[in-house]
Design a protein that fits this description.
The protein is built from ten helices and 18 strands. It is of the alpha/beta class and 371 residues long. The chain has a domain of 153 residues: FAD/NAD(P)-binding domain (3-Layer(bba) Sandwich). Helix 3 crosses helix 6 and helix 4 packs across helix 10. The longest helix is centred in the first third of the chain and has 22 residues. It holds the Pfam family DAO. This is FAD-dependent oxidoreductase. It comes from Poritiphilus flavus. InterPro entries: FAD-dep_OxRdtase (IPR006076), FAD/NAD-bd_sf (IPR036188).
């Protein structure tokens, strides 16, 4: 590409910070850098027309982890680590709300519910037995026990009749969140260039030379916020994890309120504008879903429809309006990777499917280590 003088001067000359990825983490990093350095030259690059990955494709859950997820984490992580993970999610959601405001997010604290299928008796019993212990562990974060039991008043079938509810969980409008984050970034004089893919980079003296599919440029510091796509350019322990979703057509009189998890969090659903948004199922084929391909599979889509018709809305004729998928970044540990790759290159990746909850704080952390 042949840049005009004005284009080059306005976008690519004398860059202090370049951020790769315009999702929650990347834009939060840009905003924190602007707060710290009001006169710095900051650029954000995005390979998609909209933010790739999961920032505009997630279910909009402001969640901290269902009780079965927390118990699963405690089998492989210390209590201190699990506490810190939940605390980071809490702080991240509060930071997101502070940065944008509840109205801009359409944030609603309607509670998050975990439901257990009839054949999950052992898991259900373990969760109920562990309820006092987990409440005691998490009480310092929420200032009161966050978990309680609730009867199934939603008409779900094929499940245990008691749900475990996290009363402080909520939901947001993902599209509005990203629209308002982008507006805030632009209002802080930070440009975003879309449809630009970084192909390689190398440090050279006091700068990092970056080659994209459109142009080459230099920047003093380079920050990667590419989550599930991190392994394309970085040697980090991050695996892509595809999350498939379906959305029903409008359902008159839909009474489902709040967010819902089942099967240890591998399935999730909510009421979205009078429709059911239902996603998950990668546990049906972990190997096939370890991909950066935005595709759909019959195996998972059929399972989602089966849960929809047999558990969530039994006996109802339901049409499907839309299907899509997003790409998360996961690994052997739930803690995100926030580190200096070198003196001038930094990354914040592996959000473990908790981007809404921890993305804002993780982006702030990325800015802090690169400052």
């Amino acid at each position: 590409m042949n840049w005009s003088y004005w284009e080059y001067k306005s976008y690519l000359s004398d860059l202090d910070f370049t951020i790769v990825g315009s999702g929650i983490v990347g834009l939060s990093c840009a905003l924190e850098l602007r707060r710290r350095y009001p006169s710095a030259s900051i650029l954000v690059l995005e390979k998609g027309v909209l933010p790739m990955g999961a920032s505009t494709k997630n279910a909009g859950f402001a969640c901290y982890g269902s009780i079965s997820e927390i118990l699963s984490d405690l089998r492989s992580h210390s209590e201190e680590t699990v506490y810190d993970l939940v605390l980071k999610r809490w702080r991240g959601i509060q930071l997101l709300r502070k940065n944008l405001g509840d109205e801009a997010l359409d944030f609603q604290m309607l509670g998050g519910h975990e439901i257990f299928l009839e054949d999950e008796q052992d898991s259900f019993d373990e969760c109920l037995e562990s309820l006092p212990r987990i409440n005691e562990l998490l009480k310092p974060i929420f200032k009161e026990p966050p978990l309680k039991t609730k009867r199934n008043t939603f008409g779900f079938q094929g499940i245990q009749n008691t749900l475990v509810t996290h009363q402080f969980e909520g939901q947001i409008d993902t599209g509005r969140m990203m629209q308002n984050l982008i507006r805030l970034v632009y209002s802080n004089n930070i440009p975003i260039l879309n449809k630009v893919t970084v192909q390689k980079f190398e440090e050279s003296g006091s700068v990092v030379k970056v080659q994209t599919d459109q142009f080459e440029f230099e920047t003093k510091k380079l920050c990667f916020a590419t989550n599930g796509f991190a392994s394309e350019l970085l040697n980090e322990n991050v695996k892509p994890a595809r999350a498939q979703v379906l959305l029903t057509k409008p359902i008159p009189g839909l009474q489902v309120r709040g967010t819902f998890h089942l099967d240890a969090g591998y399935y999730y659903f909510r009421n979205l504008d009078g429709r059911i948004l239902l996603g998950g199922g990668r546990n049906l084929d972990f190997a096939k879903e370890e991909t950066t391909d935005f595709g759909l599979t019959l195996t998972i889509q059929n399972k989602l429809e089966q849960l929809l018709k047999s558990v969530i809305l039994p006996g109802k004729s339901i049409g499907i309006e839309r299907r899509w998928s997003g790409i998360m970044g996961v690994g052997d540990h739930k803690t995100p990777i926030v580190k200096a790759v070198s003196d001038k290159v930094f990354c914040a990746v592996r959000l473990g499917g908790m981007g809404v909850a921890i993305g804002s704080e993780t982006g702030k952390d990325l800015a802090e280590i690169s400052a």
